[in-house]
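Why run this: before we spend reagent on co-expression, it is cheaper to look at a predicted model of the complex and decide which construct boundaries make sense. The entries below are exactly what would go into the expression plan.
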Amino acid sequence: MVRPYAVTKGRTLPSGGASFGLIDVVVATSERQPQYLRLGPEHRRILNLCRRPTPIVDLTSEIDLPLGVVRVLLGDLTSEGMVQVLSTQKQPMTDERLLRMVLDGLESL
Amino acid sequence: MDSNHYDGALPGLGARAEVRAGESVPSTVKILISGGFGVGKTTLVGAISEIRPLRTEEPMSDRSVGVDDTRGVRAKTTTTVAMDFGRISFPSGLVLYLFGTPGQERFWFMWDELAIGAIGAVVLADTRRVADCFASIDYFEHNGIPFIVAVNCFDGAQRFEPDDIRIALCLGPEVPIVLCDARERDSVKQVLVSLVRYVMSGNRRRNQISMA
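The model came back. Tokens follow.
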């Protein structure tokens, strides 16, 4: 048991100004060796969990670390090219095709 | 199958892509469930989706500074929110997330986070405590987020006509008001369907205006 931001060495914001939306999808790349980063156990857990494309909110829930901490760790991994953000949430959400998919999905529940 | 399939050549990923051919990347969308404390937000989310926990420990924003009294607590720069969310996975590969908005005002910063890119919001109302949902309605109106009002009809709660509720909440004629039972899956499903239809009709209206 450590204080939440201990695993990020006190950093509360991701490096490089990266932003990670709650429902953005991330995936691990095949990059194995970081150049500048010393991988901690939490980094490795994230890499393991996102071997398949995974929404950040699911990743955070699964790993049971606070969202802010997961974001900092993801920032480390993306700046090393070890993780890639595949989709980002758009503002506003007005994609007609996506809305139709939601409607069809709900109605067939 | 309507989900995005990648053939391994992800933009910017080049040869390092580890997304295997044919593996689907989920399309993700979210809807906010809002309303006063104890109105049934968690019940509603649980009636239709798998509930999962989410921990956040966020740097305190300007908004929460001054609300969270930190005098005498040196260097308290984060605040903890424990919340949960609902997840519905559709066969199409689409995943719909339902986020209940945290109740206390010191968590406003979390609302902004949740609202970015949301389809819209359901404001759950209890006719015995109508004023409890004023803050939610103000927030969504102010931020231009489409919302509908769902009146949770508890056992024994006095029934009101939607028109009376519209007047009590000062809602414009376009905002849908639906009656629901937050415990019933079918009822919750209808609430969400109403929201998505409302958002779609709003988009069409805006498109027509911009084309005119």
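Chain A has one domain: 4-107. Chain A touches chain B through 52 residues (CB under 8 Å). Bring this page to Monday's planning discussion.
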